[in-house]
Design a protein that fits this description.
Blueprint (H helix, E strand, L loop, with lengths): L2 H8 L5 E9 L3 E8 L4 E2 L6 E7 L4 E4 L7 E6 L2 E5 L3 E4 L13 H13 L2 H8 L3 H16 L9 E10 L3 E8 L4 E7 L3 H11 L2 H6 L2 E4 L3 H10 L4 E4 L1 H22 L2 H7 L3 H5 L7 H8 L1 H4 L1 H13 L8 H16 L4 H12 L1 H10 L4 H16 L6 H12 L16
Parallel strand pairs: 2-6, 9-12, 12-13
Antiparallel strand pairs: 1-2, 3-4, 4-7, 5-6, 7-8, 9-10, 10-11
């Protein structure tokens, strides 16, 4: 096997062959590429066309580095006359039309940027970080062009901060496939309305069976308006969070009213009160039970919180509804204003709270994806613009496998 055949086999050329090598300064290796046959294909329809002329200027495509050498493919592209699309430049198997990097380079770039900062990926690929960033976002935009959301039945909606100054983005999740399907600017009603109006058809909206969100009226109103057939479920995490905040507000009130000696018994209760019973030690439970003697109001709030944990264990909706009615009545009679406010919120969204018993749907998957999204944001030390942040979210936890869109024979990992 000759050296040229070996290089052609390693680079996985199809209908092309290596016809020369040139070593340049800066550890640059240029590989001259030549077609086997005279026929050329149209990049639009794939049909063979008549060659009109060969361009006089040579073009270069960056390939993945090998050892200390950066590889460049060198070729004079030809123009053909297609019966359908007229005069066009021929289709090249190693690169997308208009791109100056090979499919192999794009695949490796996407894989690297999924697991490491762009600066580190640029060092491995031996090009400036700004150049890699430009190539990355153009590649992601091209691969996602024309992509449509499909098979959406269970959705989750949440917001995330992407820049200081209270700049938020709305994220819509496919809870069945554990991925992000849409990202929009802001967290108001207009943001989620854009998702339903622009990203989904009427048929797709009618097929959504379950939707989970927090207690934001913007999200609740949009889901009820656009998805009348969907069962709305309030996220369990946000309900528990609101209850813990109500209990903590009782603790704060008692702390402000307590004397110096009384505060000694209340010290260290902030995180202990919000801890779940399954994660508490026996000593922690003893300290909380001791509040019955030191501060009856905090003890009463904690006992109500502990009783509410049983709500999530019910299997029958009628039994859960009966428990919720009894618990809210006890909370209203407790004379604890923060808990009374929580009860009013609970009653206002009672149907969406009880829907959890029948569906068992939560935003736990969405919160897990949010953790990955925050890792992506911290890895880049923040994003100034949502477009760049959205591309990285789609690359890491999106509904489309972007590296999987590269032709199989060019996937190097």
């Amino acid at each position: 096997m000759t050296v040229y055949k070996l290089i052609a086999k390693l680079l996985k050329f199809k209908d092309f062959r290596c016809n020369g090598l040139a070593f340049r300064r800066g550890n640059r290796l240029e590989v001259l590429v030549k077609p086997y046959k005279n026929g050329c294909r149209c990049p639009e329809c794939g049909r063979r066309g008549r060659i009109v002329r060969q361009r006089s200027e040579v073009r270069y495509w960056r390939d993945i580095p090998v050892g200390p050498w950066s590889i460049w493919l060198m070729y004079w592209p030809r123009e053909i006359c297609c019966d359908t699309h007229g005069r066009v430049t021929e289709q090249l198997p190693w690169s997308e039309a208009g791109s100056r990097v090979s499919h192999r380079f794009e695949y490796l770039m996407l894989r690297y940027c999924q697991i490491m900062p762009q600066k580190a990926a640029a060092q491995l690929l031996r090009l400036p970080a700004s150049t890699l960033s430009d190539l990355l976002h153009r590649t992601i935009g091209r691969l996602r062009e024309g992509h449509r959301i499909r098979g959406l039945k269970t959705i989750g909606v949440d917001e995330i901060s992407y820049h200081k100054g209270h700049k938020y983005a709305t994220l819509v999740y496919d809870l069945e496939r554990s991925c992000v399907v849409w990202i929009g600017q802001g967290k108001a009603r207009a943001a989620i309305d854009r998702f339903f109006n622009e990203a989904l058809s009427d048929y797709q909206k009618a097929r959504i069976q379950t939707a989970c969100c927090d207690m934001s009226q913007a999200y609740i109103g949009a889901i009820q308006t656009h998805c009348p057939n969907a069962t709305l479920v309030l996220d369990r995490f946000h309900i528990v969070k609101a209850l813990n905040e109500a209990v903590d507000e009782v603790r704060k009130e008692q702390w402000r009213e307590a004397t110096r000696d009384e505060r000694k018994a209340l010290k260290g209760l902030r995180w202990l009160l919000s801890r779940h019973s399954s994660t508490r030690s026996r000593r922690d439970t003893q300290n909380l039970n001791a509040l019955d003697k030191h501060n009856r109001r905090i003890y009463r709030a904690w006992r109500l919180k502990e009783e509410f944990e049983h709500f999530w264990t019910y299997q029958a909706p009628w039994a859960a509804e009966r428990f919720l009615k009894q618990w809210t009545k006890s909370a209203l009679l407790s004379r604890l204003e923060p808990l009374r406010k929580f009860v009013h919120t609970l009653r206002r969204h009672q149907d969406a709270v009880l829907a959890f018993i029948g569906t068992r749907v939560t935003n736990a998957i969405a919160e897990g994806l949010n953790r990955i999204v925050k890792i992506v944001k911290n890895r880049a030390s923040g994003f100034r613009h949502l477009d760049a942040f959205s591309d990285m979210i789609y690359l890491t936890v999106g509904d489309l496998d972007l590296p999987g869109q590269i032709p199989v024979r060019f996937r190097t990992l």
